[in-house]
């Protein structure tokens, strides 16, 4: 989509409309208001693991949205421990350890609605160093910019890791090619992409934007702190 958008909301609406109108969106419907699932998501997940650092990754953080379920499945099949943020970060993070998940259990364990049977809660201090991060996106640019569904949780999750002293790691996203746009507005706290993977193509960003160094507390409201205990824990 060779369009330069003046606002992130305009980019989101254009992508959501295109995925729906062109029959690319997959369950859950409608694609609007969410990280959209898309035709070819399993192929994009497989392609993601064809190159380092994902090929030999032992620990990944993967978002809980529908299209990245295939990333979670592929990671578990490869023996990779997967850390999943709980929706809206209300419960912090969960760990899926393939050592305690049988082959037949991999698919349900990777499903957000069923994973609690296998997932273990992880305290912030117990989050280990990660090899890489996979995030969902609504719109992306080949320059490494992205926008999610507008709630900022992926940005915040990365900032939490930096606040905990974790080193920056590569961030990738799996999307449909119709989710690529020419440009979107950016903010200092935005999560930068190092790799964009579609079912047909892997795009390594030549010069990814600088990642956040920690949490921008001035951007958070009292309601945010009330809703997300993990933030109150960090702030002390």
Radius of gyration: 17 Å
Strand content: 15-25%
Compute the number of helices.
7
**Unreliable residue stretches:** none
User: What gap, in angstroms, lies between the N and C termini?
Assistant: 44 Å
Principal-axes geometry comes out as: globular
Order of helix and strand elements from N to C terminus: HEEHEHEEHEEEEHEEEHH
Overall pLDDT level: 95
Number of domains: 1
By CATH's scheme, which homologous superfamily applies? NagB/RpiA/CoA transferase-like
Sketch the major β-sheet.
Answer: 8 strands, mixed
CATH architecture annotation name: 3-Layer(aba) Sandwich
Pfam family, one: 5-FTHF_cyc-lig
InterPro entries: FTHF_cligase (IPR002698), FTHF_cligase-like_sf (IPR024185), NagB/RpiA_transferase-like (IPR037171)
GO cellular component, one term: cytoplasm
Protein name: 5-formyltetrahydrofolate cyclo-ligase
